[in-house]
Design a protein that fits this description.
The protein is of the alpha/beta class. It has 9 helices and 15 strands. Helix 4 packs across helix 9 and helix 5 runs antiparallel to helix 6. It is globular and about 55 Å long.
C-alpha cells in the first residue's frame, strides 16, 4: 500500500513508505491551511483518498475500495472517518461501500444514482460539508458512466487556499476516461464543465495513468512544450495525482484542447464531438 500526504499548502509531506515525488508550492503560509488530501494507492493503479479537515480531525474517504487499508491510514493520520464520497458506480471505486456503511453505520455516503450502498443521493449542484471547514460541490460529469459525479472541494475558512477536484475516471492527468455509458459529446461537455473551475484547482484522479497518457499526447501534439513538462513530471514521479491543476490540464491534456489546429489535423475533424470521438478511438488503439 502506498500512502502520501498532499496538503493544500506550501509543500508536500510524506509517510515513510511513500514514493518520492516533486514539491508543488501553493502558498508561502503553512499554518493557515486546514484542508488536506491523503491519496491511498489501494491497487496497482487505483486511488482512494482521505479528505481531511485538520481543525476537527475529521475526514471523508473518497472512492473506497479497500476499507481496511484506508482505515489504517486514517489511524496513522489521527483522523476520524465521518463520510464516504463515491465518484461513480464501478467496482474499483465503490466496491468498499457496503463494508464502509457496516463499519460506520452512522456516516453518510454520497454518490450518484447508480452508486451501491449510498445513503445520500447527490446530483449536479448539490452541496455538503466535511468537518467544520470543507465545502463540497457536486458536478455531474456523465460519459464514463451515467452516474459520474466530480467533487470540487474548498476550505471555507481560507479563501486563498487552492481548491481541489476529485475526478474519478472522468479526467485523468493528461487524459480522460473511456466512454462506457456515454458519448463523445458528453465527455466534451463534462471536461468543459471542469475547465470552468479556477485554474489553480488541484486534480485528484482515479488512476495512475499519467505515463501512458503523456506518451499518447506527445504523439498527437508533439510540438506542445507543455506536454514536455508533463513528460518530465511523469518521469520524476511514480505518483502524479495532486501534482496537476485544471490550468495545467488545459495546457497539456489533448482531450481538453479540441479547438487546437494540430489536434484537428491529426483527427481529421473540426466539430468538438467528432474531434473527441476520434481522439478516444486513437487512444484506445494506442500502443506507444
Amino acid at each position: 500500500m502506498t500512502v502520501l500526504s498532499i496538503a493544500f499548502r506550501s509543500r508536500i509531506s510524506f509517510c515513510s513508505r511513500a514514493p518520492s515525488i516533486g514539491i508543488r508550492a501553493f502558498s508561502s503560509t503553512v499554518k493557515a491551511f486546514k484542508m488536506r488530501v491523503v491519496p491511498v494507492l489501494v491497487s496497482a493503479d487505483n486511488y482512494a483518498y482521505l479528505l481531511i479537515d485538520e481543525p476537527s480531525r475529521k475526514a471523508a474517504v473518497v472512492d473506497v475500495l479497500d476499507v481496511e487499508k484506508v482505515q489504517a491510514v486514517a489511524v496513522k493520520e489521527g483522523v476520524s472517518i465521518v463520510a464516504g464520497i463515491t465518484t461513480h458506480h464501478h467496482q474499483d471505486h465503490s466496491g468498499g461501500n457496503k463494508t464502509l456503511v457496516s463499519t460506520y453505520p452512522s456516516i453518510p455516503v454520497y454518490g450518484g444514482f447508480d452508486v451501491p450502498a449510498k445513503t445520500d443521493l447527490v446530483e449536479d449542484g448539490g452541496e455538503f460539508t466535511v468537518g467544520d471547514n470543507i465545502h463540497v460541490r457536486c458536478l455531474a460529469t456523465p460519459c464514463h458512466t451515467k452516474d459520474s459525479i466530480c467533487f470540487y472541494v474548498t476550505d471555507t475558512s481560507n479563501k486563498s487556499q487552492s481548491g481541489g477536484v476529485f475526478t474519478g475516471d472522468t479526467l485523468f492527468i493528461g487524459g480522460c476516461g473511456r466512454f462506457f455509458e456515454g458519448t463523445a459529446e458528453q465527455m466534451h461537455a463534462s471536461l468543459s464543465k471542469l475547465a470552468t473551475l479556477p485554474d489553480d484547482t488541484v486534480v485528484y484522479n482515479g488512476h495512475e495513468y499519467t505515463a501512458g497518457n503523456v506518451a499518447f499526447a506527445k504523439s498527437i501534439e508533439p510540438d506542445n512544450p507543455a506536454i514536455d513538462r508533463l513528460l518530465k513530471l511523469a518521469q520524476e514521479n511514480k505518483v502524479t495525482t495532486g501534482l496537476s491543476t485544471i490550468g495545467d490540464e488545459k495546457e497539456w491534456n489533448v482531450f481538453m484542447r479540441l479547438d487546437k489546429d494540430a489536434i484537428k489535423r491529426v483527427t481529421g475533424a473540426v466539430e468538438p464531438g467528432a474531434v473527441m470521438n476520434s481522439l478516444r478511438e486513437l487512444k484506445n488503439s494506442f500502443r506507444g
